[in-house]
Q: What sequence folds into this?
C-alpha cells in the first residue's frame, strides 16, 4: 500500500494495452496505404504522441492552439490544428507556432482564412491549410459545393497560404445504432470528401490531402477508397462508449480509474472516492449494465450514480464482501474527459507501476 | 480586443456580485445566530475563502485533503474536511495538516475514526471530529440511532479525538420539485440532526456542533431551530441549477463563461469555442429554455448541444446578426464543475478586468 499509485483516485494507464491499440490502428492504416494522424485530445501527453509517431503516424491532430503549443515544445514536428483560429491573440500564437514546427491549419470561413494568412505573414512562413467540410454532423464546416470552391479561391489569393486539401469529422458516428450504420456513415464521410476533392481539382486546385475519421468510423473509412488520412483519437485508450459502439474491445481498454472504497452504508451499497470530478458526466451508461463504469470481470459492481467527489456502488450478493479501504479499477464511459480532469496519470507495464506522466495538454482549451 | 480576458474561452468572475452573494448568505446566517462555514468546492480559490471569512464566516468546508492543503498553505485557519479520510497516504497528509491549521474531520465508520485518530497521534495534535449522519440523501453517513451512539463510544476511546458533534448533507434538496419541497427537506435535515444530537447528549456526549445545509436548503435550514452551522457552497457564484431550484436569482449569478463565435454554418446556427471541456456535462438544461447556458438578456440564444471543444448555438431571428469573432458571456448550468475545468479565472469589478486568479485547489480530488 506504499506505492504512490494507491493514493486514489488515480488514473492508471496500461502501457502494454496502449501499445497494442496503437499497433492495431496503425495496422489498419498501413493495410490500406492511408496516413494515420491521431487526435491528441484523448491522451494530451507528448509521451503518447511520440509512441504513435514511432509506430508510424504521420503527425498528430489537435483542436486548440494550447495543445499544439505543448506538443510543439515537446518536439512533435507535424501538427494539424483541426479547429478554426479566430481572434487577435490566437493569430499571434499561431504565428509563434509556425516558427517552431510544421503546422497545418483547418479553415472554414473567410475570417478563419484571414486569421491564418495573417499568422503566416507575421511569421513569414507559408501555411498549409485544409478546408473543413460538413459530411453530415452539423457542427462546423462548409457544405460541400460552391462555398468550398469559393473559399479555395480566397485561400489562393493569399501569398502565405497553400491549399492542401479537405478535412471532415463524422461525429454522427457516435449516435448510430450499430456497426453497419457506422459503416454507412464512413461511406458518406469518405464519399462526400472524395467528390469534393475531385471538384476542387477540376476547378484547378491541386488537392493532395483528404482527411477523415473518428475512432468509430476509422476502420471502415480506411477501407473505402477516396481518403488518405485518418484522425481517430479515442482508440489509443478505449472506453465504454467505444465498446458500446463496437469500436473497441473491453480487453483492450487501457485507461482505468483507480478508486478506494470509503464508505459501506449498507450491505448492497458502497461509496468510492471518485465522482464526476474524476469520471466526468459525459456520455451514456455502460453497455454492460454497470452504470458509470465497469470493473473488469466484476459485473456485480454497478457504479450507480455520482456526485462531485463520491461514486455510489450497488453491489450484487457476490460483491458484498467489499470493505472500506478496498481498491477498485473502473473502465470509464469517456476516457478523453477523464484525462482532461487529471494532472497526471500512473503508467504501468506488466501490471507494475512504472512512473507518473503529466497530462501536459490538460485543460488547454484556448 | 487586446485585453487578456478576451482570449477565450475564459471564466469571468464578477466580484461585485460575489460580494453581494457572500453578504446575502452571511446575513441569513447572522439573522438566525448560526455559524456559516462555506464549502470551498465551488470556488477552489483562497482569495474567495478570505472574502467569505472577512464577511463573517467561521471557517470553510472542503471535501478532499488536497483542497485543505491548498487553503491551509494560503492561511485559512479553520477547515472542516467533510469527507471520510481512508488510506495510509491520507493519514500522513492529515497529520501534516493538523500541525498547520485547525482541522475538524468528519467520520462515519470505525475505519474512518481509526484513520483520524492515527493522524492525531502522529501529529500529536488532538483532532475535533463530527459524525456524519444520513438525513435522507442515501450517500454516506450513518443512519441516526444506535450506530451513531456506538461510533461516539469508539471516538471517546481514542485519546487524540474530541467528539464535537454531527454533520449531514441533504443533497436530495437538488432533486425536489419546488421551494416548498426544499423547505420540507431542510426540516428533515435539521430535525434529524437535532434529535440525534439530543440522543448523544443523553448518552453523555457533549455535542456542540450541528452542521447542515446545501445551497438550496440553507436559507430554510437557518430558520429552523436545532442546527448551528451552515455549509452552502454554490451560493457564492450561483448558476442555472440554483436558479431552477429557486435558490439563486439570475441577476446575482457571478460566474460566466466568455466564449467567441468561431463559425456561422447557417443563419440560425453559430458555434462557440467552448464545449464540455469548459461547461462540463453536469446537470439539466437551463430553466429558461436556453439549453446548456444563458446569455443574460438574450433568450434568443440557445446553447443547444456541446462536444468537447464546440458549443452549438441555435439563434432566434433577432440574434441572426451574430458574427464570427463576436464575444458572448454565458451563465452555465453548474458553476462548481466549470471552475474545476479551468486553471485561472478573470475577475472583474464594475465590469472592468482586474486580474487573473489561479484556481489553486482545482482538481484536488485526492
A:
Amino acid at each position: 500500500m506504499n506505492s504512490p499509485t494507491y493514493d486514489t483516485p488515480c488514473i492508471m494507464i496500461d502501457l502494454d494495452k496502449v501499445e497494442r491499440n496503437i499497433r492495431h490502428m496503425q495496422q489498419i492504416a498501413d493495410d490500406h496505404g492511408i496516413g494515420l494522424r491521431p487526435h491528441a485530445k484523448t491522451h494530451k501527453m507528448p509521451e503518447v504522441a511520440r509512441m504513435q509517431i514511432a509506430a508510424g503516424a504521420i503527425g498528430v491532430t489537435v483542436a486548440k492552439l494550447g495543445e499544439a503549443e505543448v506538443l510543439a515544445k515537446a518536439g512533435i514536428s507535424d501538427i494539424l490544428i483541426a479547429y478554426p483560429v479566430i481572434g487577435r491573440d490566437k493569430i499571434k500564437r499561431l504565428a509563434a507556432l509556425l516558427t517552431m514546427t510544421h503546422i497545418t491549419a483547418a479553415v472554414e470561413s473567410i475570417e478563419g482564412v484571414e486569421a491564418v494568412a495573417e499568422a503566416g505573414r507575421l511569421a513569414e512562413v507559408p501555411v498549409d491549410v485544409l478546408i473543413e467540410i460538413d459530411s453530415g454532423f452539423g457542427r462546423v464546416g462548409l457544405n460541400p459545393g460552391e462555398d468550398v470552391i469559393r473559399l479555395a479561391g480566397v485561400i489562393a489569393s493569399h501569398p502565405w497560404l497553400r491549399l492542401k486539401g479537405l478535412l471532415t469529422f463524422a461525429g454522427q458516428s457516435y449516435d448510430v445504432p450499430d456497426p453497419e450504420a457506422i459503416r454507412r456513415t464512413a461511406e458518406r464521410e469518405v464519399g462526400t470528401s472524395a467528390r469534393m476533392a475531385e471538384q476542387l481539382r477540376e476547378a484547378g486546385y491541386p488537392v493532395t490531402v483528404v482527411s477523415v475519421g473518428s475512432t468509430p468510423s476509422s476502420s471502415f473509412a480506411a477501407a473505402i477508397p477516396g481518403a488518405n488520412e485518418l484522425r481517430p483519437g479515442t482508440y489509443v485508450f478505449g472506453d465504454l462508449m467505444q465498446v458500446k459502439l463496437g469500436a473497441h474491445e473491453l480487453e483492450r481498454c487501457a485507461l482505468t480509474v483507480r478508486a478506494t472504497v470509503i464508505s459501506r452504508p449498507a450491505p448492497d451499497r458502497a461509496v468510492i472516492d471518485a465522482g464526476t470530478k474524476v469520471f466526468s458526466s459525459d456520455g451514456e451508461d455502460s453497455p454492460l449494465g454497470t452504470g458509470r463504469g465497469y470493473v473488469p470481470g466484476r459485473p456485480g459492481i454497478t457504479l450507480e450514480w455520482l456526485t462531485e467527489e463520491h461514486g455510489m456502488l450497488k453491489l450484487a450478493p457476490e460483491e458484498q464482501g467489499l470493505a472500506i479501504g478496498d481498491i477498485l479499477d473502473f473502465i470509464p464511459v469517456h476516457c478523453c474527459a477523464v484525462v482532461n480532469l487529471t494532472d497526471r496519470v500512473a503508467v504501468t507495464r506488466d501490471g507494475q507501476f512504472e512512473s507518473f506522466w503529466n497530462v501536459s495538454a490538460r485543460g488547454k482549451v484556448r
In short: The first helix of chain A runs from residue 15 to 31. Chain A touches chain B through 63 residues (CB under 8 Å). Chain A is about 30% helix and 25% strand.
